[in-house]
Amino acid sequence: MTRPQGPSGLVIVDKPGGLTSHGVVSRMRRLAGTRRVGHAGTLDPMATGVLIIGVEKATRLLGHLALTEKEYTGTIRLGQTTVTDDAEGEVTASVAATGVTREAVDAGIAVLTGPIQQVPSKVSAIKVNGVRSYTRVREGEDFELPARPVTVSSFTVQDMRAARAVGPDGAATDVVDLDVTVVCSSGTYIRALARDLGAGLGVGGHLTALRRTRVGPYGLDGARTLEQLEVSFGVLPIEEAAAAAFPRWDADAEQAKLLANGVRITVPALAAGPNAVFGPDGRFLALVEEDKGKAKIVAGFAQ
After folding, report:
1. Is a pLDDT exceeding 90 seen at residue 137?
2. Active site (catalytic) residues
3. Less Cβ crowding at N or C end of the chain, within 10 Å?
4. Superkingdom of the source (predicted)?
């Protein structure tokens, strides 16, 4: 007997620290009563904040949501370098950062703002010839990751303060902690920004805290903790989720019927990228892109 499909939609989770994104998915599968659950945009175990979970048909939205702009708050420590570019890795070098000025920090940040070429952290999930980069690091392999184009729309220092940090040899180092906010494109590594900022200043750097505050239109104000979801689980209906995340096109009855059958119909001028198509009854039908004046369906939801 086939189990009836539950409601399709998104769950905006405020992920706690110390848990992997896959761990959150496992919890959501239990709460939703289905294995058809996924997430958009991995958060490292150390990081907290907005993690978008898709349930049932809404899993088809996730690949498109993962490409949207993201916003973070975090703390960068200048004066120490780690193997992972964040606080979870072993400290590999310590250099006193007492001589670092705010003017130098602002100049370093300016270099890392706008369209840039970024080399991802080696301890990441990026695949190199089919093997995860972090796996290659664990196996002791020596390799380099190619730089990738990303866009850092905003990189702002909220606070700068002196601190002391202990290295692996037990010796204390004078470091500088920066509380920052970053708005960036998908694929940007905040810990790589910390690494590159520290390297440019000549003292090294790594990320000590990270919280994702927004993914596209979904922010912390609409997120729920795992404890809250255990008490009252529910999804943001797929119609509301699509309307919030994508430009909307309301099709008439004939257009809706043809689209539901996969026909590439002539469309009005659409916004760039995926557009959410709704029928006259308000039902979410598809994500489409304009292709030579025709509607190219990139994900269908009519069935």
Report:
1. no
2. 44
3. N
4. Bacteria
**CB-count burial class (<10 Å; 0-12, 13-18, 19+) for 201:** buried
Is residue 3, in this structure, part of any structural domain at all?
no
Structural domain range at position 41:
9-68+216-240
Evaluate if residue 126 carries a pLDDT over 80: no
pLDDT in tens, 265-297: 888 788 888 999 999 999 999 999 988 888 899
Residue 2 lies in a domain: no
In terms of domains, do 32 and 128 share one?
no
Q: Are residues 58 and 161 in the same domain?
A: no
Q: How many CA atoms lie within 13 A of 224 on its CB side?
A: 16
On whether residue 1 sits in a domain, the answer given is no
pLDDT at 3: 44
CATH of the domain at 264: 2.30.130.10
Q: What is the pLDDT of residue 124?
A: 65
Both tokens of 124, joined, read 């990441």
